[in-house]
Amino acid sequence: LLFLSETGGKDRRSGLILTIPLCLEQTSMDELSVTLDYLLSIPSEKCKARGFTVIVDGRKSQWNVVKTVVLMLQNVVPAEVSLVCVVKPDEFWDKKVTHFCFWKEKDRLGFEVILVSANKLTRYIEPCQLTEDFGGTLTYDHMDWLNKRLVFEKFTKESTSLLDELALINNGSDKGTQQERERSIDLNFLPSVDPETVLQTGHELLSELQQRRFNGSDGGVSWSPMDDELLAQPQVMKLLDSLREQYTRYQEVCRQRSKRTQLEEIQQKVMQVVNWLEGPGSEQLRTQWGIGDSIRASQALQQKHEEIESQHSEWFAVYVELNQQIAALLNAGDEEDLVELKALQQQLSDVCYRQASQLEFRQNLLQAALEFHSVAQDLSQQLDGLLGMLCVDVAPADGASIQQTLKLLEEKLKSVDLGLQGLREKGQSLLDQISNQASWAYGKDVTIENKENVDHIQGVMEDMQLRKQRCEDMVDVRRLKMLQMVQLFKCEEDAAQAVEWLSELLDALLKTHIRLGDDAQETKVLLEKHRKFVDVAQSTYDYGRQLLQATVVLCQSLRCTSRSSGDTLPRLNRVWKQFTVTSEERVHRLETAVAFHSTAEKILQECPEQPEAFNEVEQFDEIEAVGKSLLDRLTVPVVYPDGSEQYFGSPSDMASAAEHIREKMKLVSLKKQQLRQPEATTPES
């Protein structure tokens, strides 16, 4: 029964030929009846009006089966059948035919039945309308026809069902209200089959029909009326046209639905972003108001803020994506959606920008707090270092080290001043930012929190100011002490220098002040110079004494003992006593020399005519005594209080001075002799 088919051939009346091949196996009449009904439903009414010629191939069957099939045709298609050709086998059923003659039953059957051999079938049907099985030339591939028919049936069924579904969907989308339209679309939105697949199947089928091609074994092409009549090419074209129309409407419905769905999804996502930012996101910022009381605390708050920013970044990424989607919809959207899209975009942008501004403000505030605490810590360390330096007792070796230490103190104090100024600037900047914190507090009263932050900042600055003031006071005291120490070292150095000067004066007195003068006038000049020289030495000694007294006062003020004044004062007194003794000896010699020269010059200047002036022998004796005394002093060393001795000049210098005095004594002695000669000659005469 699988091969029961309409081959596409036609009889001489242009009626279609129906072939019923029978086999040795039992034939189910019910299946045969159903198959005949199906085959007879394929041709058009016009074709049916021309009648059918039925070929019952009984060559491989039994007579009773053939008879049953012929009688069944009476019940199934009596009006459409005009001729039934029973192809008999080579060994015919002669006896059986005698029992039943088809030609006698023509009126009762409604169609003519003839028994014919296969090779005699061409008497009734043209060979070109018969297949090779019956000696004809008609090319027919039953499996190819069956496959095409199955494709056609499937296409017809699917396209018809799809058209109904698409019509329902499309008609539902044309309802009045948006709510009714959406409800209808929701219930019947997705078709049971893919429209694209059905359309593709229909186009492929139509292409096959239009090419009039059968896939026979020889691959050839033959004309067949089945292309137009049996496979109903116009029906396929009509279905395709209807499908395309409904599918176009369906695509528009889907586009509108997709746009509405996309808009609803965007609106839902926008509200999710807005609700989170205005809800949990804002609550996170509300709970973060502190600035920390140290670097570590500020860093911990910054880390916490970074975690909050990380959570916000995920929602900001959603915002960027939504903004791009909204922009795309705005560029390609309908007029009715523009207002709603712009409102969503504006709402989303306002909330995101406001939240981003709050995050940035909080980050800047924490960064300013961190910088403030960093400057405060640096300043605290500088103050600690300065205080440590001030708490260490100063024990410098000399004035230069004191000056260096004093310079270091001044530099540290200047650095502290700059640090405190920087702290004030950072603190004021931080206070200004805190004062603006209320502008994004969402109505939350942050006065208490801000007051704590402000009190902390002001407290830090005031504490640093007090510490700096205490250090300044200590620096002033240390500066005064160090300046006094500088003065102390200076006084000690100057006092030692005074001792050196006085020693040099003493040395000069002994080595260069040795001349006694050639006459009374010169000796008086030397005596006057010596007094001035003594005045210089006296001033040097007094200067040294004053410096040593100042050293004592400074040591008492500094509550320390001088390391050099105790040695300098005895040295100064010892040198001064030596100088005094030497000076007195020098004065005594000069005064003696003045007396000697004055008397000698007076004697030597007297005229011989006035002898009465020299009657006194005592004058000559006196000058001789003075001269001898002076000569004796030149040979005697200066004896100091400590028992040490020191000579004026060198021995040669003393010898030269003594020689000059002796010469003058000789002149006086000669003068004495001259004056005495007249006295000796007068009595003799």
From TrEMBL:
Q: Which GO terms describe its molecular function?
A: phosphatidylinositol-3,4-bisphosphate binding; phosphatidylinositol-3,5-bisphosphate binding; phosphatidylinositol-3-phosphate binding; phosphatidylinositol-4,5-bisphosphate binding; phosphatidylinositol-4-phosphate binding; phosphatidylinositol-5-phosphate binding
Gene3D superfamilies attached to this UniProt entry = 1.20.58.60
Q: Which Pfam families match?
A: CRAL_TRIO_2 (PF13716), Spectrin_SESTD1 (PF24915)
Give the record's keywords alphabetically.
Repeat
| SUPFAM superfamilies assigned to the protein according to its UniProt record, in alphabetical order | Spectrin repeat
Occurrences of domain CRAL-TRIO (ranges): 1-142
Q: Which InterPro entries match?
A: CRAL-TRIO_dom (IPR001251), Spectrin_SESTD1 (IPR056804)
- Read off the PROSITE patterns from this record: CRAL_TRIO
Q: Which family does it belong to?
A: Belongs to the SOLO family.
Please report the name of this protein according to its UniProt entry.
SESD1 protein
Q: Which organism is it from?
A: Gymnorhina tibicen (Australian magpie)
